[in-house]
From TrEMBL, chain A:
The keyword Hydrolase does not apply. Gene3D superfamilies: 3.10.20.30, Alpha-helical ferredoxin. Residues 1-46 are annotated as: Disordered. The lineage of its organism: Archaea, Methanobacteriati, Methanobacteriota, Stenosarchaea group, Halobacteria. Its cofactor is [3Fe-4S] cluster; [2Fe-2S] cluster; [4Fe-4S] cluster. Residues 52-157 form the Succinate dehydogenase/fumarate reductase N-terminal domain. Belongs to the succinate dehydrogenase/fumarate reductase iron-sulfur protein family. One of its GO terms (biological process) is respiratory electron transport chain. This is Succinate dehydrogenase/fumarate reductase iron-sulfur subunit.
TrEMBL record, chain B:
Keywords: Heme, Iron, Membrane, Metal-binding, Transmembrane, Transmembrane helix. This is Succinate dehydrogenase, cytochrome b556 subunit. Its main location: membrane. GO terms for cellular component: membrane. One of its GO terms (molecular function) is electron transfer activity. One of its GO terms (biological process) is tricarboxylic acid cycle.
Amino acid sequence: MSTQQAEPESQEAPKDPEMQGAESPAAEKQKGGGMVDQTSTDASELEGETVHIKVFRYDPEVEAKQEPRFDDFHVPFEKGMTVLDAVMYARDEYDSSLTFRHSCRQAVCGSDAFFVNGKQRLGCKTQIADLEQPVRIEPLPHQEVVKDLVVDMDHFYDQMHTVEPYFQQEDLPDGELEEQRQSRENREKVKMSTRCIWCGACMSSCNIAAGDNEYLGPAAINKAYRFAMDEREDEEIKEHRLRILEQEHGVWRCQTQFSCTEVCPKDIPLTEHIQELKREAVKKNLKFW
Amino acid sequence: MSQSYNRGLIEDFGRWKEFSAGMWAWIFHKFTGWMLIGYLFTHIAVLSTSIGGAQGETTMVDGEAVNIYTATLQGLEGLFLVRLLEVGLLAVAVFHILNGLRLLMIDLGVGLDAQDKSFYASLVLTGAITVASVPTFLTGVSV
């Protein structure tokens, strides 16, 4: 717990002239503990104020930063400001060494999943005004930290590739330009599962994945669901997919804690999909004809 | 890649405040399951005295010979601590049953949207039944 309980000595890393902004009366008020305990703030109340964010810092390559700590930044609030906006402001204006991944800024690329106030969320999708201050921003739990907010995603990607996340169909239609049609009902069935953006929030929230490194995890199973339930793939391929899923560290490790479903930024009903695959696996194995 | 920092146990134990309903349900279900298994052993140990009891085995209680099975049960039931543990046992069993039904529904894909509400309902119902059982369990026992 050393990183958590060590009271950060409010070290705004650089002594930028910009940092003077943090010494505004509003910031003083916050520092003085004048913040009322609240789960969300009315955005209009924050207008013209600064937002207090605490960001996890760790850099193995700089001797002074090898011991993880939290840095405090006071970022001027703007209407509609997201967590990503806040850390970007902190990086651009106060400390250019602050490191995190981001790309599209509109919840499509899945780069900026952070652990914000004790919950896995996409930085770009989370409104600062909805959060209790100080906003605590950490890298995703249960994954190794490479630097600051950047975690090692290799294992997550490995699990995703295990389930062969691509469409496999041997018999293509005869016509040169003929499409592979899918019924509307079937499209509806797989609709939610296609929305995954590989951000890793679910995997990071999953207690089982944390304790069992071989567990496929909610994201990979959901990806498998997307193809296993697609009527355009052959029965053989579906069987093959189910064989991967019904192994010991496949769907059966899921303990239905619903953590993944709760944190998924794309609202994919992950637990529901995992449970459906469990039932499919049972049905497949009960068949004796 | 440079060396990476593993945050160790803080990941697993320091984060209990960030648990959600489903996680607590899982933890309580595991915990009550182990408690029930533990109880099963004591239960069998106590009941095993009936083998001797059926063959007329006796033991001395307050200077008179009492059937060993009867003596064992009466001796245990005369202890306040045992009565208290029985209340706890009821709570553990009731929660495990109710949450087990909840998990059955989840496995069948029924009412997944209400999984947290059903957990809270299990807790409330367990509490109510446990409180209601106190007079039954704790009458006529001296502390």
